[in-house]
Amino acid sequence: VQLQASGGVVQAGGSLRLSCAASGSTFSRYAMSWYRQAPGKQRELVAIIDIRGRTEYVDSVKGRFAISRDNAKNTMYLRMNSLKFEDTAVYYCCTFDGRFWGQGTLVTVSS
Fold first, then answer.
1. pLDDT tens, residue by residue, 37-51
2. For residues 34 and 90, is the Cβ–Cβ distance under 8 A?
3. Collapsed DSSP state (helix, strand, coil) of residue 54
4. Percent helix, percent strand, percent coil in the chain, to nearest 5
5. How many CB atoms lie within 10 A of CB 2?
6. Which burial class, exposed, middle or buried, applies to 62 when counting CB atoms under 10 A from its CB (0-12, 13-18, 19+)?
7. pLDDT tens by residue, 46-79
8. DSSP 8-state secondary structure symbol assigned to residue 71
9. Sheet strands (E) in 15-88
10. Pairwise CA distance, residues 70 & 6, whole Å
11. Which residues lie closer than 8 Å to 62 by C-beta, 6 or more apart?
12. What's the rounded Cα separation, in Å, for the pair 110 and 9?
């Protein structure tokens, strides 16, 4: 599995959707995760989606972010609403087991 994600710049209070496209034919077999790493901070787990579509979130994004997947398109998403300055980070998609990682994409929330 190879992963590529896309991010961007958004104003505080705005929304952004990250996409993570996987190559290969086994995407549906993997539970998937989004991580992020803010400047000067450790990487943290943001959200998880298992192969059945069940989800979990870190407390700081609950109610604002939504992780989803489309197995037919080999793609995972992270919908981010009500973005805050502290959401600024490099976001990574990966398989839950940590075996495969995307290259990371910068999300910048401006004031």
1. 999 999 999 999 999
2. no
3. coil
4. 10, 50, 40
5. 11
6. exposed
7. 999 999 999 999 999 999 999 999 999 999 999 9
8. G
9. 16-22, 32-37, 44-49, 55-57, 65-70, 75-80
10. 16
11. none
12. 7
